[in-house]
Amino acid sequence: MPMVQGLGVDGRPQLLPTTNIELSFCGNAIQSKEDKSTMSFEAPPANWKPWRAVPAAIGDLPVFSQLLGDGVTPYKGPAGIIGLDILSQRRVILETGAGRKRRMYVGNK
After folding, report:
1. Which of 6, 7, 22, 43 suits 30 as a labelling partner, its CA being 20 to 30 A distant?
2. Burial profile 29-44: b = 16 or more Cβ within 10 angstroms, e = fewer
């Protein structure tokens, strides 16, 4: 797979490897009744069809820690940018709300 060149917040280029990924369904988190420390996710509906695979660049871009941080503490969790090559494959609705978290509703087909 080819490399992609990203740009860090310091203006220096960063080479990022790419791979083909297929995004899938992830329902609400479910806590196990037997073991409270075990979590899983709801299964997709029976008629769910996954997205077509798309190339994705993988890397640690410094913009995520600054953009998603609270201004005092840098964000250190996982983050990603979803492009139109994914979003254009089906209907997507983003929920409004306070703060940075948003629920995303995605059509089945």
Report:
1. 22
2. eeeeeeeeeeeeeeee
